[in-house]
Every structure is written in structure tokens, then in C-alpha cells.
Structures
1.
Amino acid sequence: MPKIYLIDVTNRDGVQTAKLGLSKLEKTMVNIYLDEMGVFQSEFGFPTTRHESHYLEANLELVEMGGLKSIRLEGWIRAIASDVELAFKLVPKIRHLNLSISTSDQMIYGKFQGKMTKDDVIKEMVEAVDAARELGAESIGVNAEDGSRTDLNYLIKFGLAAKEHKADRFRYCDTLGYDNPFTIYETAKALAENVGLPIEIHCHGDLGMAVANSIAGARGALDGGQDAYINTTINGIGERAGNADLVATILAATKSKGFAEKYPLAGAIKLKLASKIAKFASYAFKEPIPKNQPGVGENAFAHASGIHADGVLKDPENYELYSFEELGRGEPEKVETGREICAGEYSGVSGFSHIMGKMEVTFKNKEEANEILELVRYANVEAQKPLVEDELLFIAKYPKIARKLLTLTPLG
Ligand SMILES: [Zn+2]
């Protein structure tokens, strides 16, 4: 029975967002939290972008060391054979790729401006798929950018060509958020039936329907007999109006009327980490979580009106679809209100040892404390904000990986 998988693209689409970004350590923490949560795959970055190389390699090493347990790390590049070659040159350990190319007439004529025909687009894509396979890719997804403004017959032709060249998945991109649940259902079903590959659903929120479109598209893929892979981002952060929010997508797939019985999520998703991952992304992106964000917003469980408050106190199910505990909310939080010693780029070893001691981390000797402190200082320089506890613990546990993440020397 086909199932729905989650591919989070925060570290690709999320960081592509205008005016927002993450440090390499923050991107790593996102991968760690997604792994803990049980998300199938993280689109963890850009293998042809040189300042990503150390970060990507370090995270692939983290997989080998068991620091990332079950999540698959996949890189996003253009579907061009020379980009595939560059990706393997810069990140030799990369094994999972998504190859992207525009498929709509609008893009082919408006963006490529006569440099490529529709046949050229397919040719370029299959050459990239062949190159990726030859260089050792274990899984390859092909992305039809602007898929929702692409003629369905051409999309099928594109998908069949990808399949013939042994691509593993077809990503249908509603790049502009143009679809609605009815149209994306039909398209995803037609693609699943006619292409015969698992379908990735990539939605944007320009018309306020990213999550609704994601589960409708997933349903289409499953009804067409194929697995679905929904693309999400944490807190819905993404280009323009954003992508399908990770937590809201999980809630929609598991809690909405009658959906989960016929269209189940694969694997065990730990919803309990929802609050933690949302808060971390909000802090790292310096972007507040909207008050009314499903599940994790400040007001998601707030009741003021007399009738609702009375009802929810008698029985929470009167006015709540799910409990705050399920999302990992409600635990008391420790907030320093007195003296506070922070670890910053100009910290000294005594203050730093004090902070780490509070988290029950002790150092063998002064040299070790100094080494970790030095890495923490560098991490501060990159992030330009105090590190969270999990980041400090990560650096103490994986100093070699941290060093690599923080090494931003341009490659030769
Ligand atoms: Zn996108």
C-alpha cells in the first residue's frame, strides 16, 4: 500500500528566502531535529555552491558517525550534466540528488528565451540523470519547476523520459502556488498513473493553500498507485509566501477528517518535537512564529470567549482537535531572570565552563575547554547571536564536525 513520506526543504528553499538565512551550524541542527522527528529526507543544501561544501561533507560524515540516524540527506542542483559533475567533485560523498529544470512554456520561452526548446529541456534532464547515476548517485529525483503551469502531456513525457533513464522520483513543483486542491489532485493522480514513478509534491502558499494542496496532491499520487513525498519547510518559511509548513502538514495528514486511514504517513513521526523544531527555526531565522500558526503558535491553544473556555475546561475535545502535549508544549521553560553568563565571540574559559557545567558537560582539562570555547566563539561570529544549548552540546560532542562546519575558507 502506497504511503506519504516527508522531505523537508528548509535547508534549501527555506534558506533561499529573501532577507533570511541560516549559519552552517544552524542548518546542521535543523537536520538533527528533522532526524529526531522521523522525517524521511532533508534537502540539506546546494552541492554546487562552494561555501556549502564543508557543511555538506560534515553532515554526511555525521551520518557515518551515527550523529544522524535515519534521515536521508539529499542535495539540490540544476539538471545539467556539468552541475552534476561539479557536485560530485565538490562533495564526493553525496549520494542523493534532486535535479531541477523548468518545464513550463512560460519559463522555457520567458526564462530561457529561445536558448532551449522543450525537447532540449528533456535532453538536458536525462543527460543529468545519466551523469548522476554514473557518478554514484543512489537516488535521483527530477524536478519539474513550474510544473503547475506546464501542459500535462509534456509533464508525462518529461516524467517518462526520466523513468527510462532510471530516475527514482518525479517532483511536481507548484512553484508559484498556482494550484488548488482539486487541480493538484487530478494532476498528481494522472502523473502517478501515466509516469509510474513516486510523486513528490512541492507547494507554495501564494494563494494560501500550500498545506491543503500538499495533502490533496499526495492523495492523488496514492490514488494513482504511487508513493507521495510531500515537501515541507519548518514554520512554512520559503520563497515569497512560503512553503507547506512541516507541522501543519503533519497535523493535516494525521488529524483531518478521515484522511489518515486511507492515506497514511510512512514511518513514525514524533509530533512531540514540533514545538522544539518550530522554536529553533524561529530563533535561527530571527523570524517570529505567527500567533495563529497551527499547533505551535502562541494562540493555538488559547481560549478567551466564555463559551469556548467553559467548554474546553469541561472536556478539551469540545474545542481542540489535538492536545498541546502531543506537540511537546506545556513543559515549564527555564528562563534566566537574574545573573546571566552568555557564551559569545569574546567569551573567556571560566564563564564558558560555568555555562557548560550547568548542562553537566565537564572538560578533561583546560586545553579541551579552550578548544571547545574557540569553536563556540567562531560559531557565534557566524550566527551573530547566542548559541542555544543544543548547539553548545553539539560542539562539545562533535568538535571535529563543528570545526569543519565553521571552516569557510574559499576552496581552491
Ligand atoms: Zn519552492
2.
Amino acid sequence: MVRTRVAGRHFLQIPGPTNVPDRVLRAIDNPTMDHRGPAFGALGTEILANLRTIFQTAGSVVVYPASGTGAWEAALVNTLSPGDTVLMCRTGWFASLWKEMAERLSLKPVFVDTDWRRGADVVALGELLAKDKAHQIKAVCVVHNETSTGCTSRIDEVRAALDAAGHPALLMVDTISSLASMDYRHDAWRVDVTVAGSQKGLMLPPGLSFNAISDKALKAAETAKLPRSYWDWRPMLEANKTGYFPYTPGTNLLYGLNEALTMLLEEGLPNVFARHDRHAEATRRAVRTWGLEIQCAEPRHYSSSLTAVRVPEGHSADALRAAILDRFNMSLGNGLGILKDRVFRIGHLGDFGDLQLVGTLGGVEMGLRAAGVPHKSGGVQAALDYLAGNA
Ligand SMILES: Cc1ncc(COP(=O)(O)O)c(C=O)c1O
């Protein structure tokens, strides 16, 4: 379909990939260098050191030239053996995909359900862990920020549930849409493998993904029996000692990563997190003023990187998104799985400031009117009032 051009910069307000800052684009736009030459080692060493700060870990972080799905697979194949039981939490679409992957890899996932309106059920997890006296469960896998629902799981509480049960299972956490947007502490929460991707809080295009790895996970990797080759941590960690990679890295994306990490550290991680919290709160105030419902029904689990908004019964979230794209040149996230056509998702993560948020919410409010979705006006004003009063 040929669309009439709408003037002005496109608003990419899906919850990732996010808008890539010009500084990062300029960095990517450098000539590709010899990835085995002398300059590359210094670049790799700097990136790997700064990544530790972002993951809040003193341990190793590895970088794959892959989307986030690759880093999911790396987490599982490096640590587990065929037939191992893994506890997973069905918090939404992405948790379901990770579980399907575990099945395909011949693991035995036990799925702890939610209604897709809150984070992981820590009580149910704790009960299953406490019952597992034989320690058959080898890993607990949780999506920190479920991008399909805008619900966050409390990783500190999942850690506490493992500790309370005295259970030795590995803890694996997907932070693909939370890292560098929401406070996330690999070491303090004693996470064994953290999975992340480049295209959200890290403000890069898609194409890189990450595992942060605990000593316990490294030990598990010595005896894990799932087949692994490309994803094997061992040659990667060996080459990384001098800043190099065992195969051709995504050189130009690494230039961008280096710049993005510099920008995050210039802003300061606490400020990055506070900025996302503030934009999320302003968005929720707009949504409530419109009289629409936030998909996340548990305020303790609100996401700071996106807000999923339910449309009233009898209305189509996809028609609303299409109207907003056509009229205002803005992309919003669609509903996935059981939420198809029921929600639209506003991404407010990455390189994102107050004025972009106001523009985004303005586009939504005008779109609601254009698409005939019943709502009250004043959402943008509510967000403005909050932003102005909480500079
Ligand atoms: C929470 C979460 N996990 C996993 C994925 C899959 O990552 P990718 O599409 O980069 O493979 C996504 C993608 O949006 C995600 O949001």
C-alpha cells in the first residue's frame, strides 16, 4: 500500500526497537576496522568494562551478533542438559516464546501462569521450589519486563523465594526491554544469567544481544550437556580477555554500543532510571484521564519502559494504531497473543525526553478522536501538569 507522505520525523514509539540517537548513528557510520587488528582490542575492552556497569555486575558479559532470541538460547544451552526441569512464568507473549524454545531444546519447562496483567507469581514460584526437595528444578526463568503487557516481575522477590526455599536452581532473567531503562542489578539479586538486547534501552539498532554470567552459571557450563557451538561462552570469554571475539563481531554496531554506553554513563544510571519512571507515570496519568484502562493491574508491577493500554470492548486497537500511523506518522506497539487487537503499547524508553513524550501522547489523544474510540480529553494536559510539576 502506498501511503501519502506525512511530513515531520517519524515517531517510533513501539517498545523497541527505539529511536537511535544521532550520536550513535554517527558512531556506527565509521569505516569498518580490522576486528583482529591492534585497535580493536582496546575498543572491545572498553565496551566490555562499561557493559559491566550497565548490568551492575563485576562478572563477565558476553556480546553476540544476534537478536535477543539468540541470547535466550545461549542462556539455556550453556547451563542446562536435555530433560532438565525449568520453572518459567507465563507473564505474557515473550515468556511464552522462551518456554517454547526451552521445549524445542528438550528441556522440561513447568509454566507458572498469570493473567498477563501482572508480573511473575512469586508465591506460586516459592511453593513449587519449596516442594522440590530433590532439586529437580535446575533453573528459574523470568522475564523482568514483559514487553507484551507492560508488567514487570520483581526479581528481588524471585531471588528471595529461591533463598527461602534453600533452592540451588539457577536464576535466569530476560531484561531485553528493561536493561538501561529500569533499575536492574545482576549481582545484588544474584542472577546467574541475564539476557539483554541492543534495540531498546541501549538505544541501538537491533542486532546485538548479551548474557551477563555469574560464577555459578560458569560452573554449570562445565557440566551442561545441551549441544552448543556458536553460543558457547568458553571461546567467547577466552577471546574477550584481550577485547577480541572468536568470530567476526558486529563491528559497526559495537562502535554504536560504545557511544551509547558513554551516553548512558554521562547521564548517570540513577538519572536514566528516574527519567523512565517519570515518563511512565506521566503516561499513566494521561491514560487514566482518557478513561482507558492500563493493562497492568498491579501498581507494584508497572513498567517504566512501556505502557500497554486496553481499548474499550467493541473497539479495535489495531484500527486505532493504523489511524495514528496514517494521520500522525507515529508507530505504536500492537497487541500480541491473547492481547491481539485489545491493547496498544506506548514505548517510552531509550533516547526519549519530555517533549517527545508530549508529542507521543498528543498523537494518541488525537488518534483516539480520529478513530472514534470513546475517551475523555485532557490526558495530555494531565501529563503536562505532572511533568511541569516534577521537573
Ligand atoms: C522481553 C523480550 N524478550 C525477548 C524478545 C525477543 O527479542 P528479539 O526479537 O530481539 O529476538 C523481546 C523482543 O521484543 C522482548 O521484548
